[in-house]
Every structure is written in structure tokens, then in C-alpha cells.
Amino acid sequence: MTDDAAAPTCLARPLPGPGDDRAGGCAAARGVDGRPLHAAALKFFWGPMDCGKSTMALQMNYNHARQGRRGLVTTRIDRSLGPQVTTRIGLAHEAIEVTDGLDLRDLVRSAWAEGVRVDYLICDEASFYDLEHVEQMAELVDKFDVDVYAFGLATDFRSCLFPAAQRLFELADEVARIQVEVLCWCGREGLLNARVVQGRVVREGAQVVIGDTVDTADVRYQVLCRRHYRSGDLGPRA
Ligand SMILES: [Zn+2]
User: Fold this and answer.
1) Which residues surround ligand 1, an ion (CB under 5 A)?
2) Residue 205 sits in the same domain as residue 219
3) Which residues sit in the known binding site?
4) Is there a single domain that holds both residue 60 and residue 144?
5) Predicted confidence (pLDDT) per residue in 94-118, tens digit
6) 158, 180, 202: which is the final residue of a domain?
7) Which of 41, 163, 165, 227 is the most buried (most CB within 10 A)?
8) 53 CA to centre of ligand 1 in angstroms
9) What is the percentage of the chain residues whose pLDDT exceeds 70?
10) In angstroms, what is the span from residue 186 Cα to ligand 1's centroid?
11) pLDDT of residue 90
């Protein structure tokens, strides 16, 4: 049995023909009531650092692949600084780096042109994408019937929404806070990502600065509860 045969019929969309911009043959696959058999969706999963977003992204990719679906994994500024999704618990998966000029629609179209099925996109670190990328995600869902699952931070070190995250909140069919709790040093639920430079919480600077959460790094990030984010108290270990 091939993967295609194992997949639910609504997912076994025909590949696009030459010049078929819409590409998603499933767009025409409708039930007797005229509704699409497969309604693709844009979903945004968000949470602070360390809450397991990348782990969940890879788990979702695995679960869908097991059901015979085929997807692409994209990322931007992964902690490995390479074209892969890596997780703090040691998982890794190759991924396509989302650069400034990358068009996610072209990415899917060129895969289709090579005969590669794309049923869904997993977009890790989506808060670092450009606004245009989020618009492209919406179009992939609406015009191409491709599911898009985006994972990312909601807010930056100033506790303000990343532009791409804001747009995802505005456009997504479904928004879910990742349920793995990250705790502040005080034991309260961690909510905000503090940037720590030379042992102090900073509130000004570029929106994206690569750091790590290793205590010795010049720039590091620490998840705090709102109370300790606001007071800048990094706890007794700091
Ligand atoms: Zn706290």
C-alpha cells in the first residue's frame, strides 16, 4: 500500500498541472453540499521560551507523517543557527531556512512542480518571520488548501508582541497557548521572556538579539512571571 492510498481520500489531492497556479486540486474536491472536503486551517501555537514549541512542532510533523501526510518544515533563527529545527531536549529535524526573500507559496509550488506532495507546513520560530510570510501562510490555507501550523513566541524581551505574532493572532483560524508550563524561579507560571545583559534585565535594544539561556552568555534570556519581569528580579541564583 502506498502512502497515498493510506491517506484519507480528502488529502490525496492531484498534483498541479502545468500552469495551474492554484495547484491545490483539493480546492475542487467538494462534498454533495458543496463544502470543501478538507478545510485547511492556519493554527498558531505560542508560548514563552523553553515551553517546548519546537518539540511540539516536530511531534506534530511526526504524527502527520505517520498518517501518510507530507509536509515541509521551515524555521528562522533556530538556536542551532542552521537550517534545522532543534529542541532543548535533543531532537532535531532538517528544515528550510526562511530568508527575507523567501515566498512560502513559491516553496510549496516548486515542491509540487517536482512531484512532491505538500499537505501542510510546519513553521517554527514564526515570530521571527516577516509580515509578508504570515500573509503567505494565510493564502496557502485559503487558496492552496495547505494546512499551516505556526509555532513561536508571542512577545519579545520588552513584553510587546512580535509583529508576525500579532498578525498570526489576527489571522489564524485557531490560536493555542502551549500547555507545558515553564516556571519562573519563584514557582509562578513563566510568561515573559526577559533579556539579561551582564546580570540585569534590559528593556531597550533591537527586537531580535541572539543569545542563549546558558547563564554565562553575554546576552541571555530568562523566562519570568509577570511580577518578576516587571520588577526585574532574576531570583536568588542570579
Ligand atoms: Zn516570579
Assistant:
1) 184, 186, 188, 225, 228
2) yes
3) 208-211, 221
4) yes
5) 899 999 999 999 999 999 999 999 9
6) 180
7) 165
8) 21
9) 79
10) 4
11) 79
Q: Coil, helix or strand for 121? A: strand
C-alpha cell at 37: 472536503
Q: Which amino acid is located at 145 in the chain?
A: D
On the question of pLDDT at 74 being above 50, the answer is: yes
Q: Would you say residue 201 lies in a domain?
A: yes
Residue 20 and residue 144: Cα distance in Å, rounded?
A: 11
Q: pLDDT, tens digit, for every residue of 157-177?
A: 999 999 999 999 999 999 999
Q: Which residues are catalytic?
A: 125
Rounded mean pLDDT, 36-65: 88
Range of the domain at 207: 181-238
The answer to whether residue 20 is domain-embedded is no
Lay out the sheet containing 96-97: strands in order across: 96-97, 71-75, 120-123, 147-152, 42-46, 174-177
Q: Which residue has the cell 502512502?
A: 3
Lowest mean pLDDT: which of 4-8, 105-109, 126-130, 145-149? 4-8
Distance CA 237, CA 3 (A): 52
State the binding site for substrate: 208-211, 221
Q: How confident is the model at residue 77 (pLDDT cuts 50, 70, 90)?
A: confident
CATH number at residue 206: 3.30.60
